[in-house]
Amino acid sequence: MGEKKYVGSIDQGTTSSRFILFDKGGQIVASHQLEHKQYFPRAGWVEHDPLEIWDRTQDVIKETLKKAGAKAEEIASIGITNQRETTIVWDKNTGKPYYNAIVWQDTRTSKTIEELAENGDKDCFREKVGLPLATYFAGPKIKWIMDNVPEAKAAAEKGDAIFGTIDTWVVWCLTGGPKGGSHITDVTNAARTMMMNINTLEWDTDMMKVMEVNPSMLPEIRPSSDPSFFGYTTEDGPFGTKIPVAGILGDQQAALFGQTCYTPGEAKSTYGTGGFLLLNTGEEPVQSKHGLLTTVGFKIGDQPAVYALEGSIAVAGSLVQWFRDNLKMINDAPEINDLADQVEDNGGIYIVPAFSGLFAPHWNSSARGIIAGLTHYITKAHMARAVLEATAYQVVDLVEAMEKDSEVHLNDLKVDGGMVASEMLMKFQSDILNVNVIRPEVTETTALGAAYAAGLAVGFWKDLEDLKKNWKVGKVWKPEMTAVKREKLIHGWKKAVQRTIDWVD
């Protein structure tokens, strides 16, 4: 056995797949990334091809190893982090999906949600699963496949159809697929199905009945960092050798873990396709009364689970893509910063990107996006600024809800994700929240979190203290805005949000 120099992390996101090799210091050795196709068969429907995702995953693994000049034998273990809630049902004997993956942003289950809400109460299952009824989660998506794909339903009754979120699909493929692949998930991903009991961390019989899901379809729930491993990569797979797969964390929990938010009260905000704020609440689940999600933050081996409160924003970075691709206002994403810097403020306009309804803390699936406050004065530079500010304002809504629920007042916010490259956005986020915004040296904290979970499981890193030593500050933004200006801007935002609610009859 050669010396183990690296931990590998598969980061399977909403728009792309990546593989990153990390060294002992938590630094990136090499990485490769490939996009996959987004399918929009109808308004509000979003799908991916699971077979394309698996192809891309294999390609990025091979390419990263080539770039690093590394041998697969030098990798101690593999971690996986993934877009959460995205739902696949496939044939366990052939590996063929019965339908495309239904993506977390997809809203086709809105009618199901209305039907399941007891007397219109979307919080009727919150005590059990920590979540409101929403199109976001995996359970209703499985129900949709069972109701609309006869072949899948027949196979489920025979015990041939199995379900997984993307982590489960990737692990199954990596560890042999139809030839004995592991059918597992971790607590963080299971917490997003509406079928795992948030207190016992086991599949809930009542919730399976509500979603009409056959228990034989569900993967085994395991810790996020598992010393007994989820299985080994196969010799005919992309690594060409056996490596333990030992860490799984849903992408936002992986970022919490990679940002080393191991103490109750520590929070991180990720600015990706969507936006996600997570606060570590310790070993007891905190039920939200202000529209947040109660979720599992992480679980290491047989230690107690650590819980988190989460605020989810459906549209963050994808608003910049919309500005680029649909409105053709810019040619590439980074250009938005130069455009936004041409003006001192938003000129009085607000963009509320409720493209598929509003997520936390509003949970209104019939809201739709608006641009409010337009006048002759407005230029595309003001629009660019309002696009970036929209993400910061949505985070303000989440922080307000979080402070009410947890009674923890934020002084610092650790940030990560693609949009943290925008200096304007980070400065505005600090000003509008009135907190220090801290960007770490390594901003790929999602992939890093999955690597940490996998490395801990095999002893590549000793303990959480070991990981904390790796975390280093990259840059800090401090608030400078006056309270009067801050209140005025937030008032305008809240007024704009109200205009979007219940737009669709």
Oligomer: single chain
Low-confidence stretches: none
Distance between the termini: 64 Å
Q: Structural class of the helices, strands and pairings?
A: alpha/beta
**What is the number of strand segments?**
21
**Number of discrete helical segments:** 16
Strand content: 15-25%
| Spatial shape | globular
Task: Describe what this molecule looks like in 3D.
The chain has 505 residues and is α/β, with parallel strands linked by helices. Helix content is 33%, strand content 21%. The protein contains 16 helices and 21 strands. The strands form six sheets. Strands 15-16-14-13-19-20-21 form a seven-stranded mixed β-sheet. The longest helix has 27 residues, at 380-406. The relative contact order is 0.13.
Layout of SSEs?
Elements (H helix, E strand, L loop, with lengths): L5 E7 L3 E7 L5 E8 L11 E2 L1 H19 L6 E8 L4 E5 L9 E2 L7 H7 L9 H4 L8 H11 L1 H9 L2 E5 H9 L9 E3 H4 L14 H6 L9 E3 L8 E2 L11 E7 H8 L8 E5 L3 E8 L10 E6 L7 E8 L3 H9 L9 H6 L9 E3 L17 E3 L7 H27 L5 E5 L6 H11 L2 E5 L4 H13 L6 H7 L2 E5 L5 H18 L5
Helix pairs in contact: 4-5, 9-14, 10-12, 12-13
What are its keywords?
single chain; alpha/beta; 16 helices; 21 strands
Concise summary:
This protein is of the alpha/beta class and 505 residues long. It has helices at residues 50-68, 110-116, 126-129, 138-148, 150-158, 166-174, 187-190, 205-210, 251-258, 317-325, 335-340, 380-406, 423-433, 445-457, 464-470, 483-500; strands spanning 6-12, 16-22, 28-35, 47-48, 75-82, 87-91, 101-102, 161-165, 184-186, 220-222, 231-232, 244-250, 267-271, 275-282, 293-298, 306-313, 350-352, 370-372, 412-416, 436-440, 473-477. Helix content is 33%, strand content 21%.
